[in-house]
Write a structure and sequence with these properties.
Blueprint lengths: L2 E9 L10 E7 L11 E4 L5 H14 L3 E8 L6 H4 L3 H21 L3 E11 L7 H20 L5 E7 L1
Parallel strand pairs: 1-2, 1-4, 2-3, 4-5, 5-6
């Protein structure tokens, strides 16, 4: 039986995590050209809670349960000097983090009893301090969620670099 996957594509792509025999819903900022598998694309900029609430409703209508949530945040190309002082970029980064945590909280009732988070991130880089903070904050949140739900859902967190 195919399993149900929800993808959150913040940046970049990772073809290695696409499964042939799965039902996929992809939340992304734009149409992804390299995905040839059948999928439902929900476009959002991840700054709008309304978009994420609508996405949750669509996911609920298509899936009774979710087996995996995959978050892709790779291939970040930044001007290293200006990025660390660009207030709008910093604000957007942390707003996306808060909204993704909110979205995960929305979909908790849909999580399968055996559930997996797959995080496809690039390696830490001391020049990308805000990306590193995003990554570590999300991992810490998921670890806390895992402990909180241990009696009802067995959560596995897989981090790909």
């Amino acid at each position: 039986m195919p399993h149900n996957q929800v993808f959150i594509i913040l940046n970049g792509e990772d073809q290695t995590i696409l499964s042939e025999n799965s039902n996929k819903i992809i939340l992304a900022k734009k149409k992804l050209e390299n995905i040839n598998h059948d999928h439902t694309l929900l476009q959002t900029n991840f700054n709008s809670l309304e978009d994420l609430i609508k996405a949750n409703e669509i996911i609920k209508s298509q899936f009774s349960k979710i087996d995996e949530l995959i978050i892709v945040y790779r291939s970040i190309d930044l001007n290293m000097i200006s990025y660390q002082y660009d207030y709008n970029h910093i604000k957007k980064n942390y707003q996306e983090l808060m909204n993704i945590i909110y979205f995960i909280n929305l979909i908790v009732p849909l999580l399968q009893n055996e559930f997996q988070f797959i995080l496809s991130f690039e390696k830490d880089n001391h020049y990308k301090v805000h990306f590193n903070n995003f990554k570590m904050s999300l991992i810490r949140y998921l670890e806390t969620l895992k402990v909180d739900l241990i009696k009802s859902i067995n959560i596995n967190i897989k981090i790909l670099n």
